[in-house]
Specification:
By secondary structure, the protein is mainly α. It has a single domain, classed as Up-down Bundle (Four Helix Bundle (Hemerythrin (Met), subunit A)), CATH 1.20.120.450. About 65% of the residues lie in helices and about 5% in strands. The chain has five helices and three strands, in the order H-H-E-H-H-E-E-H. The protein has helices at about 5-20, 40-65, 75-80, 90-110, 130-160, and strands at about 70, 120, 125-130. A three-stranded mixed beta sheet has the order 1-2-3. Helix 1 (about 5-20) runs antiparallel to helix 4 (about 90-110), helix 1 packs parallel to helix 5 and helix 2 (about 40-65) packs parallel to helix 4 (about 90-110). The radius of gyration is 17 Å and the shape is elongated. The mean pLDDT is about 95.
Length: about 160
């Protein structure tokens, strides 16, 4: 039996998970960093929105093309040069939610055999559509955990003032 339906459900729920974790975040908490060089809540949510755009392109390439090249990108350069430090978390979350919903609608109607289609990632090598789906489902979950940890550390730091 295929695990694709369970993977699709994890993927679909990513924005909900983030919305729950981000409930009540505002002001200086959006820009709190745990340590120098780490990302803030604001930057992480902007990263998720942009990563989902990249994912939308990669998913479509693998579905539509034969063995496409999936180009890696420098997330730190995107963070610095696309001004993640000024992006509004609510807008970034809404962009993530919208793009993820479009991606989910595309994927949910595909036959299981489509998830074996593959592309060649410039850093990770051969990647199937299933592996991309797993990766993007896990990406939102991982960052949701990270955001929760940042919020907990912010509350501790705020209590020490």
């Amino acid at each position: 039996m295929s695990d694709i339906p369970a993977l699709l459900e994890r993927f679909r729920r990513g924005p909900e998970l983030l919305a729950v974790v981000l409930t009540g975040v505002f002001g200086e908490e959006e820009d709190f960093v745990r340590a120098p060089g780490k990302w803030s809540v604001r930057q992480i949510v902007a990263h998720l929105a942009d990563a989902e755009m990249v994912g939308a392109h990669r998913l479509r390439q693998v579905i539509a093309e034969d063995n496409p090249t999936l180009i890696a990108y420098n997330q730190d350069a995107w963070t610095a040069n696309l001004d993640y430090a000024r992006r509004k978390p609510k807008q970034s979350l809404e962009a993530f939610r919208r793009i993820r919903a479009e991606n989910y609608e595309l994927l949910k109607g595909l036959p299981d055999s489509a998830f074996e289609r593959a592309g060649n990632h410039t850093e990770n090598g051969r990647m199937t559509l299933r592996q991309l789906l797993e990766g993007y489902a896990g990406h939102a979950e991982s960052h949701a955990r990270q955001l929760q940890e940042i919020r907990e550390e912010y509350k501790k730091a705020k209590g020490k003032r």
